[in-house]
Design a protein that fits this description.
The chain is of the alpha/beta class and 381 residues long. It has two domains: 194 residues, Glycogen Phosphorylase B (Rossmann fold, 3-Layer(aba) Sandwich), CATH 3.40.50; 155 residues, Glycogen Phosphorylase B (Rossmann fold), CATH 3.40.50. It contains 13 helices and 14 strands. The longest helix has 18 residues. The radius of gyration is 21 Å and the shape is globular. The N and C termini lie close together (8 Å).
């Protein structure tokens, strides 16, 4: 089966930003390459990377990347030559519709990862960097998903099998506000968490980690402010910024108990998360954060102001939602972190339960089983 994956990023610094959508694209490529017996030939379709100097293709994670042509007709011809059996989108935005509508009879899965109805957009746009309250931060743009209605309508006309799937059931309720209508059915297609450390030994000194881009929407300044309240603990920033200049966030003088490690490789990430006591998420908005799931795989509970599918409440501490800079939530964050650090037995129990949960529902095996169920619905399993 030839699978065309429509994506806007690829978790490859040579091809742009290192975000969660790109992480999902990388996991897809690596998973199918590890299972050649499934016979899936994966090809990426890049919506945001234009061909350069006549170069129409690149390679990411061992898979071909078809770059965007300067004209819609050229795009159409380019992807039709591939003769895809299935299409799969990493979330959805207007640029994706060009490719979905160019192949109106090809079965497709819309993998909904971060739908943003108007209420969510309003919250995101409230984000501000401390000291830059008069400037809208970079990276808050929210794409308009209303073009999905036309894709759905044309799929019905051409009798194309169009399936909606998500790794987080609670996101289904946001689809109507994002796409203009809620799908009649939505299926579970989990994330692919292959972070499975062989040894989990927590550090002697309390260690707290931040895993994610150091961009305004993630509000990493709250992590730094939190560290100042816990001088006896070590705080580690794992990630790097995508934006620079006015409206971007730059690390300034850090407290002595904070270290910025930048982007780390998979082995180092697994080791650090396995040693950590708590993983902190300070974002103003999230779908189902991959950082949650990777922390769970390492038996590390989370402290978060986001509670998608109630996983922060179940496997950590949900301190509440705070908009703007988020600074008015620092007392609640501190209470939550103090509770997690001071209750070792509770922390260990939550970590163990979190690991069992993520291994059951978000493993490579769970993904492949769900993916095969979806594709078999059109006889192309």
């Amino acid at each position: 089966m030839k699978l065309g994956v429509i994506a806007s990023e690829f978790f490859d610094p040579a091809l742009g930003r290192m975000g969660g959508f790109g992480w999902a694209a990388r996991q897809l490529a690596q998973t199918f390459q590890r299972h050649p017996e499934l016979g899936v030939d994966l090809v990426f379709i890049a919506t945001d990377i234009a061909e350069d100097g006549g170069q129409t293709e690149r390679v990411a994670h061992g898979s071909k990347v078809i770059m965007r042509a300067p004209h819609r007709l050229a795009n159409l011809r380019r992807i039709r030559r591939e003769r895809f059996d299935w299409l799969l989108t990493i979330d959805y935005n207007l640029a994706y519709s060009v490719y979905l509508r160019s192949l109106p009879r090809t079965p497709a899965i819309i993998w909904v990862r971060d739908p943003r109805p108007p209420s969510d957009v309003e919250e995101i746009l409230s984000c501000r960097i401390p000291g830059q309250e008069d400037t809208e931060p970079q990276g808050l743009y929210c794409s308009d998903g209303s073009s999905m209605r036309r894709v759905v309508r044309e799929s019905w006309i051409f009798q194309r099998k169009l399936l909606f799937a998500t790794p987080a059931p609670s996101l289904i309720g946001k689809m109507r506000g994002t796409f203009g209508e809620e799908p009649a059915r939505c299926y579970f297609l989990p994330n692919i968490i292959d972070l499975r450390p062989t040894r989990i030994i927590k550090s002697e000194r309390p260690t707290v980690v931040f895993l994610g881009r150091l961009d305004p929407i993630k509000r990493p300044w709250l992590f730094v402010d939190l560290a100042r309240r816990f001088p006896y603990a070590e705080f580690l920033l794992l990630g790097q910024p995508h934006f620079a200049g006015r409206g971007g966030y730059e690390l300034s003088t850090l407290p002595s108990n904070v270290r910025a490690l930048g982007h780390v490789g998979e082995d180092d990430k697994a080791r650090i998360l396995s040693e950590a006591w708590v993983s902190v998420n300070t974002s103003i908005h999230e779908g189902l954060p991959v950082s949650f799931l990777e922390s769970f795989a390492c038996e590390t509970p989370v402290l978060s102001g986001q509670d998608t599918d109630y996983v922060a409440s179940r496997f950590g501490y949900f301190y509440g939602r705070f908009l703007g800079t988020g600074e008015d939530g620092l007392d609640a964050m501190s209470d939550g972190l103090r509770f997690l650090l001071d209750n070792a037995s509770h922390r260990r129990q939550m970590g163990s339960e979190a690991r069992a949960w993520v291994n059951r529902y978000h493993s490579p095996e769970a993904f492949l089983a769900a993916f095969q169920r979806l594709t078999s619905r059109s006889g192309a399993g």
